[in-house]
Design goal:
three-stranded mixed sheet, 276 residues, single chain, 2-enoyl-CoA Hydratase, Chain A, domain 1, 43% helix, Lyase 2-enoyl-coa Hydratase, Chain  A, domain 2, lipid metabolism, six-stranded mixed sheet, ClpP/crotonase-like_dom_sf, 2 domains, alpha/beta
Length: 276
Amino acid sequence: MAQDPQAPQAPAEQDPPRVTVALRDHVAHVTLNRPDKMNAVDNAMIRAIIAAGKEVARSDARAVVLSGAGKSFCAGLDVMSFAAMGQMTDKAWIMERTEGVSNDFQAVAMIWHQLEIPVIAALQGAVYGAGLQIALGADIRIAAPDARLAVMEMKWGLVPDMGGMALLPRLLRSDVLRQMTYTATPVAASQAADWGLVTTISDDPVAQAQDLAAQIAGKGPNAIRAAKRLIAYAESGAPQSEVLLRESAEQAALIGEPEQMEVVMANLQKRPPVFK
């Protein structure tokens, strides 16, 4: 029997959000949420990652845990999205700067790198291509023993284009960077740790990332943000004299202020600090 077009229609089932954000105790828990596709990145996830980064930036979070639901952190670009991009003749979108100095693809990594607060990535399973570059946006990367990391773009005849070349040279020796880029060969978490791509290995990277984020969230928020700014400036290649001057300027803005005095009193009274 034909359906009455005037009859009420059941609401269409909505896809779950590509990325979830939960704020608890000043820690933002950001989860790539497409486990059935190994969190492969499609256009919807790109938009969701950027939106999540902006949501965290507006919040009162003091640290971020960035993780992926399911067996893998992120296996790279979604194959169907990749195929559609390959058929596009207009390539102007690649050069368009949509998020500051980045295009949308680069912003999925750079939005975390540019946050004022520390970001800790918890990695497991496949961390390939886009997934690796998203993880590079974090300050710290904690990997499960089963994690495998790859600069995967050369497999498809491409170069890393999601922030990888802005971030990888800060972590890897040139020869290691070249080997990973030229071959697209995945490496085990233990090898990635030896090379400096992974901070530490844990049987439960999410739990360890959460513990570390809680520890950071208990420190002075202004001091943590100042430390992240100062480290970034020191790594920028600025002259030593300018780094020393910036060091002094950041310290002058902190010392004797209410936050710093609360930290001192809390230490003397052997209690957690309370920040207003």
